[in-house]
Amino acid sequence: xxxxxxxxxxxxxxxxxxxxxxxxxxxxxxxxxxxxxxxxxxxxxxxxxxxxxxxxxxxxxxxxxxxxxxxxxxxxxxxxxxxxxxxxxxxxxxxxxxxxxxxxxxxxxxxxxxxxxxxxxxxxxxxxxxxxxxxxxxxxxxxxxxxxxxxxxxxxxxxxxxxxxxxxxxxxxxxxxxxxxxxxxxxxxxxxxxxxxxxxxxxxxxxxxxxxxxxxxxxxxxxxxxxxxxxxxxxxxxxxxxxxxxxxxxxxxxxxxxxxxxxxxxxxxxxxxxxxxxxxxxxxxxxxxxxxxxxxxxxxxxxxxxxxxxxxxxxxxxxxxxxxxxxxxxxxxxxxxxxxxxxxxxxxxxxxxxxxxxxxxxxxxxxxxxxxxxxxxxxxxxxxxxxxxxxxxxxxxxxxxxxxxxxxxxxxxxxxxxxxxxxxxxxxxxxxxxxxxxxxxxxxxxxxxxxxxxxxxxxxxxxxxxxxxx
Length: 470
Ligand SMILES: [Zn+2]
Description:
By secondary structure, the chain is of the alpha/beta class. The chain folds into two domains: about 1-80 and about 430-465, Roll (Urease, subunit C, domain 1); about 85-415, Metal-dependent hydrolases (TIM Barrel). Helix content is about 35%, strand content about 20%. It has 15 helices and 20 strands. The strands form four sheets. Strands 1, 2, 3, 4, 5, 18, 19 and 20 form an eight-stranded mixed β-sheet that branches. Strands 13-14-15-16-17 form a five-stranded parallel β-sheet, sandwiched between helices. Strands 8, 10, 11 and 12 form a four-stranded mixed β-sheet that branches. It starts with a helix and ends in an 11-residue tail after the last strand. Zinc ion binds near residues 87, 121 and 375. Zinc ion binds near residues 87, 89 and 375.
């Protein structure tokens, strides 16, 4: 397979040497080394031509003379596709009162750091209706942020994660009283509590919830298989294989993939058996090594978005790159020892962190597809910034820097079923493009040398997205 790919790469080069004949181009990025997100070797001396928000050609620099109304000379620089974060919630990651404009702030920060597409996976502010409104505001130009894919409210059982684990008792009470008034064959939607989430207590209810999301224009279905992560106890119900199957069947009928929240081995196995496409967390208690399970996952095309950020915290909260967007007040709130103690109980659960990393490396080695997602909104997971640290953690797991870049670009698009639209620097794709001063394939931390973000063909005013107010 590898040899075949190399052969293709060699053949592909001559086809690039013809110039397009488009008269008017909005933007040309010239002279850069292009790392196109497909995983093939970087290419020098090429120009990216952008028109009406799309990449229309990638061709030799000689072709591009003065055809564009705007030219960025990126000689000596590196161009990569915009990042895709497949695991986003709307929160800043600090224990502060929620702001009215929390989602706006999260989206602005994502874009600042070069995250040009996100998958919002429900919970606070993540109902299908909220997603629709944000999309409309973004399209109208009153909201600055990445392209928004969404699942709408995630489907979970009554009595388990996240309402009965991490949400306050008042929310549980309100949710229970809503459930008491709802027939079993209807989903219990918590939209009115500001939470994108539905309890599903029968297969009928779950399938109805899936259809509603498909009709609302959502891009995938998110389910919580989780019985309740340690340290919240394991006495919460776990979603059955039958329920997962029923959801997957309805989702597939509606052209949607199912993303599952699972963190333990038995939840992973149920997800796999139920036919879901992948999981959005790392499995923390998988005994090492377990090649058999990895082979089985790979053979089904199963994927993992390990969301490793969630299990650790940045080494340096004074990191200037972080502080570009995160306020003093947020850092102070995160440094509260009581808060750190409470959160660190979550980091300590299951296997040691190095084992979790090794596990991800083992899955990758056996061909399980790995993509980048952060779980932004959780403590110490920072919108946009954590996309960069997540790529670093993927490299620590055993991916090469190039593979980590692919995980954060093309792979994300593939898992969302939108690889024809976005995720690589190729003609016909959305013009989501990052310009870096330094080579990220040398050292993945070089993604921090981000200089320019282009989102749907427009150059982002990153200064306007810097930290606003304390
Ligand atoms: Zn999540």
